[in-house]
Amino acid sequence: xxxxxxxxxxxxxxxxxxxxxxxxxxxxxxxxxxxxxxxxxxxxxxxxxxxxxxxxxxxxxxxxxxxxxxxxxxxxxxxxxxxxxxxxxxxxxxxxxxxxxxxxxxxxxxxxxxxxxxxxxxxxxxxxxxxxxxxxxxxxxxxxxxxxxxxxxxxxxxxxxxxxxxxxxxxxxxxxxxxxxxxxxxxxxxxxxxxxxxx
Amino acid sequence: xxxxxxxxxxxxxxxxxxxxxxxxxxxxxxxxxxxxxxxxxxxxxxxxxxxxxxxxxxxxxxxxxxxxxxxxxxxxxxxxxxxxxxxxxxxxxxxxxxxxxxxxxxxxxxxxxxxxxxxxxxxxxxxxxxxxxxxxxxxxxxxxxxxxxxxxxxxxxxxxxxxxxxxxxxxxxxxxxxxxxxxxxxxxxxxxxxxxxxxxxxxxxxxxxxxxxxxxxxxxxxxxxxxxxxxxxxxxxxxxxxxxxxxxxxxxxxxxxxxxxxxxxxxxxxxxxxxxxxxxxxxxxxxxxxxxxxxxxxxxxxxxxxxxxxxxxxxxxxxxxxxxxxxxxxxxxxxxxxxxxxxxxxxxxxxxxxxxxxxxxxxxxxxxxxxxxxxxxxxxxxxxxxxxxxxxxxxxxxxxxxxxxxxxxxxxxxxxxxxxxxxxxxxxxxxxxxxxxxxxxxxxxxxxxxxxxxxxxxxxxxxxxxxxxxxxxxxxxxxxxxxxxxxxxxxxxxxxxxxxxxxxxxxxxxxxxxxxxxxxxxxxxxxxxxxxxxxxxxxxxxxxxxxxxxxxxxxxxxxxxxxxxxxxxxxxxxxxxxxxxxxxxxxxxxxxxxxxxxxxxxxxxxxxxxxxxxxxxxxxxxxx
Lengths: 199, 624
Description:
The structure holds 2 protein chains of 2 kinds. By secondary structure, chain A is of the alpha+beta class. Chain A has 6 helices and 5 strands; from the N terminus they run αααββαββαβα. In chain A, strands 2-1-5-3-4 form a 5-stranded mixed beta sheet. By secondary structure, chain B is an alpha/beta fold. Chain B is built from 21 helices and 23 strands. In chain B, the strands form 2 sheets. Chain B has a 21-stranded mixed beta sheet. A two-stranded parallel ribbon of chain B has the order 5-7. The longest helix of chain B is centred in the N-terminal third of the chain and has 11 residues, at 55-65. Chain B is globular, with a radius of gyration of 26 Å. Chains A and B meet through helix 2, helix 3 and helix 5 of A and loops of B. Chain B: Its main location: nucleus.
């Protein structure tokens, strides 16, 4: 067991330049912190042991003494330190919004089809993109969107269920608002869809 | 809200004294922190006797006392005699409860019958850093229930670190027809549904401020719940902490029909294009939180580039700017027109560098409050120091809040600030290391400092230049800054630092200690030396039972003591509980950490008129 080294400034990593006998890779650091830090100043009435202290929230056990010894080179992160509220801490990590996540898959149903499909809305940049993909996926034509008439004139009308559970006509709202509120798609027969058009 | 607590003289409150004083005139129990926690069962005596000769005097008193606004003055007045106590209670319209468990809602509402505005604080501050399991308590429910019947005319509620549920908000919205102001700071337990109820039912609402609170996303469009017709009375709408998208069209309409709106702080789901639309509609704003300050996510909007510069230029009254939650620095020049008028600027969510900061801050001559990220480096702080001669409050937060990360700010920045901003009153500074010399310099250059909070993120880190502990630096602060009331220490500290605090920190009310000290003496110095100490929070420091006992003479004067991961035993804490019956001594088990049965993870104790609370969760043991 090596003798404790005086780390004058805790993060100088003097142990890297230290000469010692021993096989390369033998550290002894993990045991060192418990052993060297048995503080003489503790009184006999202390009920807590080294072990219980080191297993508490601060899993670095050198909290007791004022001497610069025993600053362990590998510091595990301690709970609640530094004292920054988690809201602030998390603000600078990459945000995982729905859109930035691994993909925005929504179910697509076609009236009359035996099974549903799924599309990743993230892949598309705009409505024409999406509609073209749906047309090719289901082998049908959806036609042009017009604000006034919806998809009148085509056989099918694409609709979607939004966050509130309402069925909306695809194309009315800006694209990014659409992809953030679209929960699933349903391609309706035009005859049924007439009521959804912007009349 | 003022952090000030009552400056009660230290009283020696051993058991005998309390019993004796109950026979004298002091049977009006102090609910807001005056020195005497009065004994006696039930509420204080408020009998209304038959008309008596002093009636005239009391009427005069009532007319005079209603002009007293400071709660300290009121507490002092209430201690003069029974009739002053009674009249003061009748004329107190603002009630401040510094610890929600120090007094019961019933006792408070019985004593103070005509309250219009209530402020209540709950959880201890260290709970914010996950040092305690959640659901510890501090429920608003019993308070709102009591107030619903006692104060139907209630207008304002301010809560800090309380658990508030949607139901509580519903009760609030239903019970107080004149309700005007709701401010929730660091609260949790509610969601957008609760906000929706408040928005729709509180027709007189002037202020709805959500600050650093956790709001659950119930998918409720609360913004659309404000009454659609006519104008609103809204003066302040702050929701920058709400982490869910909002209905922007509804917000725009709301702002358009709120002619009195002065303060608007948007959350990060509002893009800069949307911000533009709001700002052009409300150039009268004095406080603005800009939201994300970047373009909307997703594919290109196809929106025209707005004239942001003109929009801001039209805001002649803007004095406080914040937000910048996802800032695109290209947009930063847009705020240039308002810089000259700004007294408060919060860049603490903006990852900007020194150059980008300089482009703005060099115009901010009137700045008094500045919050920023350390991404601006020492160079950015030097720019602040050279320009902001009127700076009173500075907070520098770490972008990378870890112990061994890069330290972009250091003693260089602190020294510069101390030399440039002589009027500094309050500083919170996160860094990786610090020198004693810079701290000493600040103590000499900034004599008006009242709040000094230095967080050296490297635990036990000494002065990197001298290798010495940070004792001398903090010693200089308490010695030279004669108005110091709040102190947070860090870095390598021996008992000597605490000796200085005890010797010189005579006005210190709040002290935060982490990973510091050598022995019981450290805590003893503080408890014996600081007569004004109200709030003491300590973690991971070698203070034990003997040290705890040295504060027996003072605990009744404090709002609370928190000690976690120190060297306390259950027996030691029990001893305190036995000797001070009016203290609630909570031993809180941190369920995550393993420990031997007889170790005390967390001690949290506070004076109370009510004894042990009945809503303690199972991980809390109240010693008696």
